[in-house]
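Researcher: We plan to redesign the surface later, but first we want a full-length starting point. Tokens attached.
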């Protein structure tokens, strides 16, 4: 009978249990993950089960690291996620958080597009560190992703996006994430994709400022290739700023929408 142990094929006899395999393969493992779920009681294994064996505090070699990064995935996710190529337009509060969430799920390839540098006021909601101040956001985010998941291929483009270059820059990606602060830039990207790139899906966001209710941020399917996240109302303005909690909620709505689309889920 075939199973996978740390993503490698392994042949066992029918009736073999998870803990028996642990004792054969990695006896000092103190975390046993079966099909994405940590088990504390032994279980009989079935054909094509995925077993991950982890020793707390141990830094794995690169050959084993990717298998451990996806240990808590639902089975079947990684194979599809690894093939996806996602473009992110803007690496501010939305884009930096989307990029990190997608990197953590093991996305195959990212295209990161921004023209700006990291500055101190970004740190209240964007996923950068003090050491990144003054760096191009594309370079800073590539550095961060390399420390989270070195198996993600990261392409960067330092450019200001407008109607003249959007189609060319995002021509090869599967899904585009709109992550701008500027309403004009948001509208330009969305309209360009919808009018000139009918084969592309765009996941945009509008309305996540302030500290209003979490539950007003929702994901809506506007068209077959257009999804919109946010409350649609709470724009950033004097007296209503952008802060990490609601921006991150919206960003992760976007990231989860991307994941659902990769997995073939077209609804919201």
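Model: Full-length starting sequence:
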């Amino acid at each position: 009978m075939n199973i996978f142990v740390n993503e490698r094929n392994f042949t066992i006899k029918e009736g073999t249990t998870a803990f028996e395999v642990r004792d054969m393969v990695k006896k000092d493992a103190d975390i046993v993950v079966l099909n994405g779920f940590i088990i504390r009681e032994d279980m009989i294994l079935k054909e094509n089960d995925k077993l991950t064996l982890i020793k707390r505090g141990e830094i794995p070699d690169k050959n084993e690291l990717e298998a451990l990064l996806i240990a808590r995935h639902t089975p079947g996710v990684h194979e599809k996620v690894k093939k996806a190529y996602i473009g992110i337009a803007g690496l501010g509060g939305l884009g930096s958080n989307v990029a990190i969430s997608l990197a953590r799920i093991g996305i195959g390839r990212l295209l990161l597009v921004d023209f700006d540098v990291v500055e101190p006021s970004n740190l209240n909601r964007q996923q950068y560190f003090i050491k990144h101040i003054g760096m191009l956001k594309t370079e800073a985010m590539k550095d961060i992703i390399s420390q989270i998941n070195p198996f993600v291929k990261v392409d960067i483009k330092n450019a200001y996006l407008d109607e003249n270059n959007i189609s060319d820059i995002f021509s090869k990606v599967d899904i585009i994430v709109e992550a701008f602060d500027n309403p004009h830039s948001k509208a330009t990207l969305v309209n360009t994709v919808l009018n000139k790139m009918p084969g592309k899906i765009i996941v945009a966001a509008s309305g996540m400022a302030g500290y209003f209710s979490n539950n007003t941020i929702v994901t809506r399917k506007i068209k077959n290739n257009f999804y919109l996240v946010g409350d649609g109302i709470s724009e950033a303005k004097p007296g209503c700023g952008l802060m990490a909690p609601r921006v991150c909620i919206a960003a992760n709505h976007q990231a989860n929408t991307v994941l659902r689309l990769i997995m073939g889920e077209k609804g919201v």
